[in-house]
């Protein structure tokens, strides 16, 4: 019995019963349905209400996996597998890729910008749901036949017969569509280069032209009492070099001045030390920030 | 003396036209010469500034020579060959309608040709000097030539349609020349007024042409006149009245006379040529030319006579009150054309006299206008007669030539006007039927008109050339001093003098020459047919005597008031009639109240209705669409989710409908 | 239990997917809502197949999956392209269609 023949046999018949009254499921399937259906609805609602896009994506994944299970339960194991592979495996992962590309933390503001759109959306959605459910509940149909006959040679074989039999042309067209879509994605995401590509040479030349320091920056100072990174080194002229302290420490204000690490007599023995009058106070030490170093290092941002 | 003979249709008596032969085939030169002159002058531009005026004179003079030649040949031709038709070209051919453009050369048209080209040439010569200091003299001559060409086309046309072309041509030339100094607004307004009023008359012309075409299927004189004999009287009456309307417009007859006074805004030579001698008489020509049509429509003819009689008095009354020398002459022209119309309205017995008076009037009125131009030329373009006075000492030749014209229009024997006007008055006292109220009324009006004419023309003459000097001159003036530029009246140059002298000679002698042995009447017989003149209701000597008496009385009154007594420089308030006459008997007000204002209100209400109702409907529709678009535009806010909401709404509604109705 | 329960579940999931499209502004989540709607319809197809005893429904569901995969590829590429130029993945920011 070919599938088309089956279709022709679909006629309401004299004992026209509503779909609601017709039923032929096993108890296990009923349990499965009633377990999965609430999960799916809640997960789908998560798509509506989730603030974070990743959560929304994961709830959609959940809905799709549950759907796959329902497909299997509905005598469509092939579709169930395809659902898992294509949807949850490929499509949703693509979604996640794009999410990462766009920015995971780009949480969606739920404040409505179009006036009245929220109410319009809710009303129309509820209306749509109402009419759809109404259609299902009032539709008249035939007693379910089940797919035992069609799935006699296992479901994939049956589906394959239909696809490569009746719908082989549509399949070819869909193949073309997929290739076109792939090309389209390439074209859409292709970025036209507007300026010359920036290579190593160009970068170096730009640095020189900018007047930046080309050599490595000086290392922090090493003193008798400290060799930590927060103390600046002294230049050839005896001034502290700001650039020898890592920028992060400078930004945070955590560097120390040379005076902090200078040799200091033990309490009560100050008089023992002969002060070198010729040197005087070390320039650049003390509470005031040092003047710009002679090396012309980059300014503190 | 029999009424049967008198009412013989002219065309039937005169016989039809024969194809032109010999020299008459060159009649087209009459029109072509001035037309070419106008074209050259207009197209050559400033290059022809130096010699353009002489080319204009030459073109006009050439036309006169051709016209004179044709006349001489015509005089030698036998009577039955005097109506000739020159075929020019096939003009309009549409189905059964086949109209050729042709010229009708006959004594009537040749009379006009001579008048137009002779007076026209004299005016051209006069203008060479008169317009000497005008920067646009060449353009002026181009327009004058254009006028001559159009006028000749008008009188020579052999069909109503071709006549209409000339009719509009002279209207155009008149418009251009009245508004020649159109940089001043009153002149431009006057030109526009003349144009608009003439258009009213043109409607009559067009309707008449359509009526004749609808009735006879042709518009050429030959066919129309032969078919008019015995045609439906109602039709002929309608056509006659429409032709009269056209004639009223062109000839400034009541009720379309209001433009003529304002037309004096044009240069004086224009007034002399167009608005005195030639163009304004085109209406008379039209009526006389259409004699066979009127022959079958006595009612229309009566209306012509009534209009003429009324305008005769109307113009005369206005002329008595005007202080502007040119406007007085314009009123006089109106009145004199009223005489011609009256004569034409008398039917076959008056046609020839109408044309006769037209010719003599063309001479003496043009002469007087040129004289007025000469006076203005010597008086810094002053036109107010109250600022003239005593000019005879300074402008001897002008005074003499003007006097010739004055005596001619008064009808003093043996000056021209006497011969023509007296014939009209006599005819007015006589009708073909010889009975009823008409002879008495028309005769009395004509008689009265002669008296009033004598008064106002004498007033003009005395105020200008006699009496006390009322202009500020080098000599001490007796009257009050006026803060105006000192006048230095002087005689005009020879180029202006000679045309005036020639016209004066014509004013003196032309009437007598043409009237000798009824020569002019017999000359026109081939066109108008021979007509016996019935006896007037009064004896002819009585009529002549009464006329002369009235004329002398009018002249005496004018002398007493304006020559013997001092004339106020500022016009006195005057009686009700005087004030009314000064304002053209309120004709402008009547026109404005009865026609212009209602027309404007009608236009305004139509515009209002158009804007509010018609436009309002469509702009309202557009605004509705725009407004709804503006509303719907808010839905197109660019947010994808709003569009998605719309889609979902559609799905919900569609599903709900399907669900509800189980489609 | 009868099979219409599956259909009701499908309708509910579809509705939730719709509301996600209407309510969320993050383009990626909106996209997931669309995927949810596709999956819900797939469930309906599978159920129909079972009702009618005909594998065509399953085949259609299979094609839906394939087309959905193609659509995801393109859609995400568009989202990435928009994100690159506008630094935002909100559907409301891409309202250049207006005016």
TrEMBL record, chain C:
Q: Which Pfam families match?
A: Oxidored_q2
- Tell me the membrane topology, using the record's own terms: Multi-pass membrane protein
Enzyme Commission number: 7.1.1.-
**Gene Ontology CC annotations of this record:** NADH dehydrogenase complex; plasma membrane
Keywords, ordered alphabetically: Cell membrane, Membrane, NAD, Oxidoreductase, Quinone, Translocase, Transmembrane, Transmembrane helix, Transport, Ubiquinone
Asked if the Swiss-Prot or TrEMBL record annotates the protein with the keyword Magnesium, the reply is no
Q: Which domain of life is it from?
A: Bacteria
Compartments where located: Cell membrane; Membrane
Q: Tell me, what is one Gene Ontology molecular-function annotation carried by this entry?
A: quinone binding
Q: What is its main location?
A: membrane
GO BP annotations of the record are: ATP synthesis coupled electron transport
Q: How does it assemble?
A: NDH-1 is composed of 14 different subunits. Subunits NuoA, H, J, K, L, M, N constitute the membrane sector of the complex.
Of which family is this protein a member? Answer: Belongs to the complex I subunit 4L family.
Q: What is this protein called?
A: NADH-quinone oxidoreductase subunit K
Tell me what organism the protein belongs to: Cellulomonas bogoriensis 69B4 = DSM 16987
Upper taxonomic classification of the species?
Bacteria, Bacillati, Actinomycetota, Actinomycetes, Micrococcales
């Amino acid at each position: 019995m070919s599938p088309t023949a089956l279709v022709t046999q679909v006629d309401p018949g004299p004992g026209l019963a509503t779909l609601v009254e017709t039923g032929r499921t096993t108890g296990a399937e009923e349990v499965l349905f009633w377990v999965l259906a609430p999960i799916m609805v809640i997960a789908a609602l998560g798509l509506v209400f989730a603030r974070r896009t990743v959560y929304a994506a994961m709830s959609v994944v959940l809905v799709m996996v549950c759907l796959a299970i329902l497909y299997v339960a509905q005598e469509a194991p092939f579709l169930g597998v395809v659902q898992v592979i294509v949807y949850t495996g490929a499509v949703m992962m693509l979604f996640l890729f794009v999410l990462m590309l766009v920015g995971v933390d780009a949480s969606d503001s739920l404040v409505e910008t179009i006036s009245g759109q929220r109410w319009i959306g809710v009303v129309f959605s509820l209306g749509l749901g109402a009419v759809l459910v109404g259609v299902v509940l009032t539709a008249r149909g035939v007693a379910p036949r089940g797919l035992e006959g069609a799935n006699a040679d296992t479901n994939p074989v049956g589906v394959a017969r239909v696809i490569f039999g009746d719908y082989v042309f549509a399949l070819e067209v869909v193949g073309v569509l997929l290739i076109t879509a792939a090309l389209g994605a390439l074209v859409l995401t292709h970025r036209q280069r507007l300026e010359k590509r920036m290579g190593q040479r160009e970068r170096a030349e730009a640095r020189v032209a900018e007047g930046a320091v080309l050599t490595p920056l000086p290392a922090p100072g090493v003193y008798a009492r400290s060799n930590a990174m927060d103390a600046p080194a002294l230049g050839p002229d005896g001034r502290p070099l700001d650039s020898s302290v890592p920028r992060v420490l400078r930004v945070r204000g955590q560097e120390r001045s040379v005076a902090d690490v200078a040799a200091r007599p033990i309490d009560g023995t100050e008089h023992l030390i002969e002060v070198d009058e010729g040197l005087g106070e070390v320039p650049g030490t003390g509470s005031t920030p040092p003047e710009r170093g002679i090396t012309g290092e980059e300014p503190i941002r | 003396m029999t009424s049967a003979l008198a009412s013989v249709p002219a065309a039937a008596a005169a016989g039809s036209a024969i194809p032109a032969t010999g020299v008459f085939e060159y009649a087209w030169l009459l029109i072509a010469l001035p037309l070419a002159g106008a074209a050259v002058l207009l197209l050559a531009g400033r290059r022809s500034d130096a010699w353009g005026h002489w080319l204009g004179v030459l073109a006009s003079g050439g036309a006169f020579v051709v016209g004179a030649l044709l006349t001489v040949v015509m005089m030698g031709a036998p009577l039955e060959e005097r109506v000739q038709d020159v075929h020019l070209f096939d003009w309009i051919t549409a189905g059964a309608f086949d109209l050729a453009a042709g010229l009708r050369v006959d004594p009537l048209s040749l009379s006009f040709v001579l008048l137009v080209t002779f007076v026209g040439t004299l005016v051209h010569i006069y203008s060479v000097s008169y317009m000497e200091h005008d920067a646009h003299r060449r353009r002026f001559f181009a327009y004058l030539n254009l006028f001559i060409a159009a006028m000749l086309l008008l009188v020579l046309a052999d069909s109503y349609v071709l006549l209409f072309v000339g009719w509009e041509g002279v209207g155009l030339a008149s418009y251009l020349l009245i508004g020649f100094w159109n940089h001043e607004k009153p002149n431009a307004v006057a030109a526009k007024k003349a144009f608009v009023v003439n258009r009213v008359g043109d409607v009559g012309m067009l309707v008449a042409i359509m009526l004749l075409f609808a009735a006879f299927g042709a518009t050429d004189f030959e066919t129309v006149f032969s078919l008019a004999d015995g045609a439906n009287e109602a039709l002929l009456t309608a056509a006659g009245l429409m032709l009269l309307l056209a004639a009223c417009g062109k000839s400034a007859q009541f009720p379309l006379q209001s433009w003529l006074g304002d037309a004096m805004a044009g240069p004086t030579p224009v007034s002399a040529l167009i608005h005195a001698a030639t163009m304004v008489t085109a209406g008379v020509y039209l009526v006389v030319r259409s004699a066979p049509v009127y022959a079958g429509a006595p009612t229309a003819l009566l209306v012509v006579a009534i209009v003429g009689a009324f305008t005769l008095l109307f113009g005369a009354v206005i002329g008595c009150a005007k202080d502007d020398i040119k406007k007085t002459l314009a009123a006089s022209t109106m009145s004199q054309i009223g005489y011609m119309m009256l004569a034409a309205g008398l039917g076959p017995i008056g046609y020839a006299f109408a044309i006769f008076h037209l010719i003599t009037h063309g001479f003496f009125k043009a002469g007087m206008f040129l004289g007025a131009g000469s006076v203005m030329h010597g008086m810094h373009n002053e036109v107010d007669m109250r600022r003239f006075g005593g000019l005879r000492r300074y402008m001897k030749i002008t005074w003499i030539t003007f006097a010739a014209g004055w005596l001619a229009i008064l009808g003093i024997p043996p000056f021209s006007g006497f011969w023509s006007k007296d014939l009209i008055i006599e005819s007015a006292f006589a009708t073909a039927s010889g009975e009823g109220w008409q002879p008495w009324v028309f005769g009395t009006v004509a008689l009265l008109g002669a008296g009033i004419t004598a008064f106002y023309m004498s007033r003009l003459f005395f105020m200008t050339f006699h009496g006390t000097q009322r202009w500020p001159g080098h000599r001490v003036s007796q009257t009050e001093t006026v803060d105006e530029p000192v006048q230095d009246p002087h005689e005009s140059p020879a180029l202006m003098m000679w045309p005036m002298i020639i016209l004066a000679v014509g004013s003196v002698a032309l009437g007598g020459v043409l009237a000798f042995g009824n020569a002019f009447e017999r000359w026109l017989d081939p066109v108008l047919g021979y007509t016996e003149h019935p006896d007037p209701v009064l004896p002819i000597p009585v009529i002549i005597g009464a006329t002369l008496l009235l004329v002398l009385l009018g002249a005496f009154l004018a002398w007493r008031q304006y020559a013997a007594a001092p004339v106020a420089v500022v016009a006195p308030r005057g009686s009700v009639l005087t004030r009314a006459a000064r304002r053209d008997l309120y004709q402008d007000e009547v026109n404005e109240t009865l026609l212009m204002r209602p027309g404007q209100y009608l236009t305004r209400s139509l515009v209002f209705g158009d804007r509010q109702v018609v436009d309002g409907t469509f702009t309202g529709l557009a605004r509705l669409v725009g407004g709804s678009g503006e509303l719907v535009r808010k839905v197109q806010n660019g947010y994808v989710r709003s569009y998605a909401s719309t889609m979902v709404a559609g799905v919900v509604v569609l599903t709900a409908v399907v669900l509800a109705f189980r489609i | 239990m009868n099979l219409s329960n599956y259909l009701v579940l499908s309708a509910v999931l579809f509705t939730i997917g719709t509301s996600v499209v209407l309510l969320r502004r993050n383009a990626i989540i909106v996209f997931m809502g669309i995927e949810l709607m596709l999956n819900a319809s797939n469930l309906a197809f599978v159920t129909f197949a079972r009702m009618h005893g005909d594998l065509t429904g399953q085949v259609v569901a299979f094609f839906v999956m394939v087309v959905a995969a193609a659509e995801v590829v393109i859609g995400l590429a568009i989202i990435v392209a928009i994100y690159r130029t506008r630094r935002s993945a909100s559907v409301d920011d891409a309202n250049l269609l207006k005016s």
